[in-house]
Amino acid sequence: MTRTRRSGLVLALVTATISAFSVYVNALGVRAFESATVYTTAKNAVAALILGVVAIVGASLARTTASRTDTSGSPARLSTKDRLGLLAVGLVGGSVPFVLFFEGLARASSPQAAFIHKTLVVWVAILAVLILRERLGWPHYLAIGLLLIGQVGLSNAGLFPLDTGALMILAATLLWSIEVIIAKRLLSRVPSRTVAIARMGLGAVVLVLWVAVQGQFAALFAVSAAQLQWLALTGLLLAGYVSFWLAALARAQAVDVTAILVVGAVGTAVIAFVNDGVALAPQAPWLGVLVLATALVGWSMVRRPTPALQVADPAQAR
Predict the structure, then answer these.
(1) Residues of the chain under the 70 pLDDT cut
(2) Structure pTM?
(3) Domain range holding 277?
(4) What pLDDT was estimated at residue 2?
(5) Is 272 helix (H, G, I), strand (E, B) or coil?
(6) DSSP character for 147?
(7) 3-state secondary structure (DSSP) of residue 137
(8) Alpha-carbon distance 122 to 255, whole Å?
(9) How far apart are CA 20 and CA 69, in angstroms?
(10) Into how many domains does the chain fold?
(11) What is the pLDDT of residue 69?
(12) CA 245 to chain centre
């Protein structure tokens, strides 16, 4: 099981690295679109398409080489309970919170939004203990405290009123925390690639419907060559993020993976420093706090005994 947790740690760090680039690139890509909602919908649809193509190609190669004969993870073999779980992931994680987050972002300040979103690790920790019965030790409590302190420092977030925008972002964050719990349960029976496709595919359908309701459906197809390049890049990053995130979640505790992902903020700051010359020194102490918190969680993942983790197929335990 130590080996499984270590692979989960590695996959979570890879996910955090992708997140670092994704946050930076998305900040640039969204500027090329008049509507952030249209941009998000199109990007998520591209990610769903990439995941679908990869799955089809992978299945085709498996049949050709006869290297895999067990199809228990295919949608045709999923139980009704698992199908409902995948639907919930698509709604609770891949669509509704995106609408709430970006609508809230239009009403709230960026520092306020950033801080509220980073409280995700707190809500996941609470739900993971209550529902998943995950074990938290003193490194977790210390790390979560440090993560919050670091994010307060980075976002310059003080006491602020919970106005409409802030409440919408908080609602999105709570929904994403619920998604983590649902996905964690599903991953004990369903391969991570199936959960990833459901999250992005079903989520994209709902987002497209939302854009249509807003009267912006035509904007999804009225994109320039430059905008297509941004969508291809950000969609690829999102597909990679979701794939590695779910693979990590299948191998490690939900609270561990969620905490590790916060260190992506350090990578984003470094990228901004290298590419744009953004001063790194004022952020250095807070970034150091995030690194320390991540190190604590990583140490706990490979050293602390935990109950056996169940995964959907033997390959996920390697």
Answers:
(1) 1-3, 66-76, 109-111, 157-161, 304-318
(2) 0.87
(3) 2-317
(4) 56
(5) helix
(6) H
(7) coil
(8) 9
(9) 37
(10) 1
(11) 47
(12) 6
